[in-house]
Amino acid sequence: MRFTYVTLFQNLIEGYFQDSILKRAMDKALFDVDFVNPRDYTANKHLKVDDTATGGGAGMVMTPQPLFDALKALKEEGDVHIIFTTPVGKPFRQNDAKRLAKKSRIAFVSGRYEGIDERVIETFADELFSIGDYVLTGGELPSLVMSDAIARNIEGVLGNIESLDTESFETPLLEAPSFSKPALYEGSAVPSEYIKGNHSKIAALKFAMSEAKTKFFRPEQLLKHKKRTSYEK
After folding, report:
1. Per the domain annotation, does 209 fall within a domain?
2. N or C: which terminal CB in the chain sees fewer CB atoms within 10 Å?
């Protein structure tokens, strides 16, 4: 797997892969990253990649020529799945992360200013994604969020592959609360069943707490769970 970031600001992304799980995965060649800067493709003598919006409006828009040439060159290198990060895209979900982890190469195109000329998106986008209903300064953070979620689903990236099965959003229910040692800390104790060693009772308690947590934080997810279990019966 290769993640390619089409961005004007490589430094905003590069450092994220210098530590922790993703750094170890890269050292094992489970995936790699590279960068494409649209400014390297601009025909403008001042290296500009933006211009005023046609039809008026505040702010600048990323012009088509640099991105057209950059993405054409990218596609000529071989199979690549091109994703644009945009507030108008469909919400990015765990199922998307699992599906995209099977791709050989994904390119994330990060917009800046007031966005990207729509003709670029219409020509090159395989998918459009949003990570939430809010506006960010650029597309680099959404690109990192999505690539992190995708990378975790690449075989070998996580030390214990079973941990994927118990995480939030693998089912409609949120993950049950986690606890570590010591069993008692500053007057607060872990649930007693956790330390008694009866795994069936621990599993039942975790399920009950998972339902309670989902009901409190994400009630719409609990409804999905109840519909699914009703259907399975």
Report:
1. yes
2. C
Say which CATH number the domain at 190 has.
1.10.1270.20
Range(s) of the domain holding residue 186? 171-232
Nearest to 118 by CA among 75, 84, 141: 84
Q: Is residue 226 part of a domain?
A: yes
Alpha helices (runs of H) in the chain, residue ranges in sequence order: 11-14, 20-27, 64-76, 94-100, 118-124, 140-151, 199-217, 219-232
Same domain, 143 and 180: no
Quote the longest CA-to-CA distance of the chain. Answer: 71
Q: Is 61 exposed, middle or buried (0-12, 13-18, 19+ CB in 10 A)?
A: buried
In a domain, residue 37? The reply is yes
- Flag whether 69 is in a domain: yes
Residues 176 and 141 in one domain: no
Contact between 109 and 36 under an 8 Å Cβ cutoff? The reply is no
Kindly tell me the number of DSSP H helices and DSSP E strands found in the chain. Answer: 8, 9
List the structure tokens of 52.
């005023």
Q: How far apart are CA 10 and CA 33, in angstroms?
A: 11
Angle between helical axes of 20-27 and 140-151 (0-180°, round to 10): 70
Are 80 and 127 found together in one domain?
A: yes
- For the chain (233 residues), the mean pLDDT of every run of 10, in chain order, is 96 94 95 96 91 77 92 96 93 96 97 87 96 91 97 89 56 83 87 87 89 86 75 56
